[in-house]
Design a protein that fits this description.
By secondary structure, the chain is of the alpha/beta class. It is 48% helix and 16% strand. The strands form 2 sheets. Strands 6, 7, 8, 9, 10, 11 and 12 form a 7-stranded mixed β-sheet that branches. The protein has a 5-stranded parallel β-sheet with strand order 2-1-3-4-5, sandwiched between helices. Helix 7 packs parallel to helix 8.
């Protein structure tokens, strides 16, 4: 079921409109100033109570005299899932504008810790809040901690750095996602024995490392007839992922399963295509499980080349990141159940 955007953050202007009075009148009521008729005071207070309005927060925002600025530090390059998150943020423009918020995209190489850390360091005084697809590395942790120390609200998005002082993580339980992928590969392979390949973007990304950990856990404990090969890294790039997987398929004729941990899906699909399998001397289909529902994975699922996708809702992640940053900036509680990102299993027969 699609996650619904909740727009409960009202302004003083909203209260004034509902009460049928001016903004100045609302301000007089909030500060108990004289000159307001009792009936008007009653209407204003009823509007405040009806909406569970927090006047001290709204008044503070009005006094700031400027919009809040958030930055989303995202991977450079054509990652379809990350592009979906950016697209959903674009669709939020009216919602953001009504709350005097602006969101800016900062593209960087999240696979290079020095580049990512430098990108974060360059944002130190410019933004009220930052959401970052983060690499779990000492330099990146230090950059996040410096931002927090300077008063910037920081949330990690999709990939976490739990040892940093970031305020919140927006994303799925990646160990559980990896375990889910392992259970799918093992059960879909069935009674066959053989080897299982893993293609990751980078094991330095916390989400990829945790998914691999969960996947190997299930393989080792539940499917002893399947042997997991060493992890290969494709940096979420199609060409590199195709190259490393094609070489692996050529060396191991008994690969029966594949887990693609991140992006680079087109390259993986190319290597798994009928011609590639024929060239490798293989006559059995490789069970292929990956992540996210995009135009590409949808097509691969329909073609039968891909067996299942572990899905997370990019629209929910975009909205949750903004809502959490706004709550942190306002000093309001985070609605954790609302912002919890769910893991879905999508196959050809239940494509949304």
């Amino acid at each position: 079921m699609a996650e619904t955007l909740t727009t409960t953050a009202l302004t003083l202007k909203d209260i004034a409109r509902q009460a049928g009075v001016s903004l100045a009148t609302v301000d007089r009521v909030l500060h108990n100033r004289p000159g307001v008729r009792p009936d008007t005071v009653r209407r204003v207070k009823e509007a405040i109570e009806r909406n569970a309005f927090q006047p001290h927060v709204a008044a503070a925002e009005l006094a700031r005299g400027r919009a809040r600025r958030f930055a989303f530090v995202m991977p450079s390059g054509p990652n379809p899932f990350m592009q979906q998150i950016e697209a959903y943020l674009g669709e939020m423009s009216a919602w953001l504008s009504s709350r005097r918020l602006s969101v800016e995209m900062v593209a960087t190489d999240v696979f290079d810790p020095s580049v990512l850390a430098a990108s974060l360091e360059g944002l130190s005084d410019d933004y009220d809040g930052i959401a970052v697809v983060a690499l779990d590395h000492p330099g990146v942790r230090a950059a996040i901690d410096d931002l927090v120390d300077a008063g910037t609200k920081v949330v990690t998005l999709v990939s976490d750095v739990p040892s940093s002082r970031r305020h919140h993580y927006i994303g799925i339980d990646n160990i559980a996602a990896g375990r889910t992928a392992g259970a799918l590969v093992g059960r879909l392979v069935g009674q066959r024995s053989g080897k299982v390949a893993i293609i990751a973007g980078s094991q330095g990304l916390r989400d990829h490392a945790e998914r691999i950990f969960g996947f190997i856990q299930v393989m080792a404990s539940e499917f002893p007839g399947l042997s997991v090969l060493p992890v290969l890294e494709g940096r979420d790039e199609d060409a590199r992922s195709e190259q490393v997987l094609a070489r692996l398929l050529g060396r191991h004729a008994d690969i029966v399963g594949l887990y693609n941990v991140g992006a680079g899906t087109q390259g993986v699909a190319n290597a798994l295509s009928e011609k590639a399998l024929s060239d490798a001397g293989r006559d059995r289909q490789v069970v292929f499980v990956g992540h996210d529902v995009t135009a590409l994975t949808r097509r691969l699922l329909l073609q039968g080349l891909m067996d299942a996708a572990i899905s997370q809702n990019p629209g929910h992640e975009a909205r949750a990141a903004v809502r959490v940053l706004l709550a942190l900036a306002r000093g309001e509680p985070i609605l954790r159940e609302q912002e919890k990102i769910r893991i879905d299993i999508v196959m050809r027969d239940n494509l949304p």
